Amino acid sequence: MVGKSESGSGGEKPLDLFLKIGLDERTAKNTVANNKVTANLTAVIHEAAVTDGCDRTVGNLLYSVATKFPTNALVHRPTLLKYIVSSKIKTPAQLEAAFSFLAATASDDLKIDDFEAACGVGVEVSLEDIERAVDEIFEENKAVIVEQRYRTNVGELFGYVRMKQPWADPKIVKQIIDTKLYALLGERTAADNEKPVKKKKEKPAKAEDKAIVEETAPAKPSEEEINPFSIFPSPEENFKVHTEIYFSDRPVLRACNSKEILDKHLKVTGGKVFTRFPPEPNGYLHIGHAKAMFVDFGLAKERGGCCYLRYDDTNPEAEKKEYIDHIEEIVGWMGWEPFKITYTSDYFQELYELAVELIRRGHAYVDHQTPDEIKEYREKKMNSPWRDRPIEESLKMFDDMKNGLIEEGKATLRMKQDMQSDNFNMYDLIAYRIKFTPHPHAGDKWCIYPSYDYAHCIVDSLENVTHSLCTLEFETRRASYYWLLDALGLYQPYVWEYSRLNITNTVMSKRKLNRLVTEKWVDGWDDPRLMTLAGLRRRGVTATSINAFVRGIGITRSDSSMIRLDRLEYHIREELNKTTPRTMVVLNPLKVVITNMDSSVMDLDAKKWPEAPADDASSFYKVPFSKVVYIEQSDFRMKDSKDYYGLAPGKSVLLRYAFPIKCTEVIFGDDKETILEIRAEYDPSKKTKPKGVLHWVAEASPGVNPLKVEVRLFDKLFLSENPAELDDWLGDLNPNSKVVIPDAYAVPSLKNAAVGDSFQFERLGYFVVDKDSSPGKLVFNRTVTLRDSYSKGGK
């Protein structure tokens, strides 16, 4: 553990120090949880002499120094901190340039003039300078922008501006680019959100077929495909009956709002759509919640309305602040912004008062049956012995429950619904139970807590939710939902259920996920093999691709479908293919010595992007080529064949971005089987034209191994498509779901990669830098392979 800060901090704890420099509370608390970063940041704050606090911009730069500063140049850290505190270095771009310069300088003497020039010290970029640069870029690329409209690669435009004005404030650059795009293109259209369809070359049509071809028009997408939210009614229509509840002993209840109640509701909301995303804070969110977010936040956004993030925190025993913080953070990462963050516990007083009113109206009673007795009586459709107790007696007993005068488990408040109904969820559901447990949000004020079935619909009504949307397993609860609101005379939202998101080769029940985590079958809630959103993010999956996947599935009520995992992977590849730079890493290195080359090292150009223009330097990176290179062990075999494009004795291959090489000799170990190295000759003239192209990594200097990195290859967590159906579902875990390669070789340009940076390792797949990386060793997680079976099989 890191102790209290001493000199200059007045004995303050690290958390207090971190808050003083402007870190937000969540970042500060996460930092304290990491001993290494805490020690680094505490030292940086003292070195910078800002223990009494500083500007938030400076504080964020100090945080970057604590987490990213090159360890080989620590002697120069105090100098960099002086530049930051004096605001000579004040932007992330300048700081990244400083890191690169200092990493190259290492412990050598620091040449101040060169350092300042490399970091843009003293360079002031005005708003006019940025606007001029953006105008020039738009003029040069106007034809492409007009053609591609909002499909234009904004990152590419940003890169062009960066080349012209490397020290410009990136936020201002982004704002000006967005403004310029809007001025040029106007509002987004539905067509802008559609993915371009690649046209296949068609054979010329026969004469007799031409007439038919000309008459056949392409099928237009349905309104629901263009706008999945078109199926939902407007708030003004919520006077219509759309649910009927049948009772065994009274007339049918046709759920709808009176004109008076609806008018009052519309006056409060202004006729806007109000939805809510109501997760329980008892675990980490998974990809099924991504669909719920898309439905709830998406509808509100599409209609210009509002969506609450409401924590359904009615069970104090299962809820943790860790989960609450995670949910808020992950909702933001998914691209959604709540109108307001609320808690069911915010309404505990109103809920209690309404429960008293429910008793007064004869619709609830205090019961003393045990859980087993309640279960037995419900199965037999028998009334509780206390169901018809006097109202005054129930009011007195409920007050005793509230005041802690009745033991836990000795009484509940139950709704008096319909024990003879055909719907099990009308069998006098529990409204309140006693729990002598402090609440994470409400404290110790309450010892009785409302149930989901009682609280959920009432809070929907109190928050004036227009559309209460949930998954199909709650459909049988719709009767209870409307029964309670009708019994209390409250406004009734429109309720609609949609199918759960079920994906193959995984489990998504919180109980099973919790067991996987607590029993350490996986490495925490953010294990990249899990379908938790934290796990997917750590694996390198973007929120954009998850939302595209969910939108592609649609908002349906068909609950029998299991979505194949490769459909999600298709959307992940679609995005990463466009956004990730290419690089080269060799997972299982095999040494190749080029015998006709001296010990010099060539710096060759390698493409970051497949279609990189030759005159754009930012689209290339330097890769050293030397006498010793490494290829994949799987790219060499002793016996050649027609369908094999790798290296073999006497055979040539092309090293990507470099030269053809030909295997001339194989060096074996003492067992005469293990291949130690390959001897080869290269063709500097490039006249040889081999079919096979291999990725490779070379020694950057003679006798020095390439950059060593750890690579983690993740695969499906379970062998079966639907492991949740198996009795021994843990026995179905894939033993090869995580394969760690500790000593892969990478090109030098990857040295400065930061946590969260994504790359395509050529011929291998898409990878992201993991949080387990350290200054001495980068760790990469495989996001997804290059293989794509989904697009071949149809979308």
UniProtKB/TrEMBL annotation:
- Catalytic activity line of the entry: tRNA(Gln) + L-glutamine + ATP = L-glutaminyl-tRNA(Gln) + AMP + diphosphate
Which InterPro entries does the record match to this protein?
aa-tRNA-synth_I_CS (IPR001412), Gln-tRNA-synth (IPR004514), Gln-tRNA-synth_Ib_RNA-bd_2 (IPR007638), Gln-tRNA-synth_Ib_RNA-bd_N (IPR007639), Gln-tRNA-synth_Ib_RNA-bd_N_1 (IPR042558), Gln-tRNA-synth_Ib_RNA-bd_N_2 (IPR042559), Gln/Glu-tRNA_Ligase (IPR050132), Glu/Gln-tRNA-synth (IPR000924)
Q: Which residues form the Glutamyl/glutaminyl-tRNA synthetase class Ib catalytic domain?
A: 272-577
- Supply one GO CC term from the record: cytosol
Record flagged with keyword 4Fe-4S: no
Record-annotated Glutaminyl-tRNA synthetase class Ib non-specific RNA-binding domain positions: 15-170, 173-246
What Enzyme Commission number(s) apply to this enzyme?
Answer: 6.1.1.18
In this protein, which residues make up the domain named Glutamyl/glutaminyl-tRNA synthetase class Ib anti-codon binding?
Answer: 581-683
Could you provide one GO biological process annotation from this protein's UniProt record? reproductive structure development
Write out the similarity annotation: Belongs to the class-I aminoacyl-tRNA synthetase family.
Q: What is this protein called?
A: glutamine--tRNA ligase
Please report the organism this UniProt entry assigns to the protein. Answer: Sesamum alatum
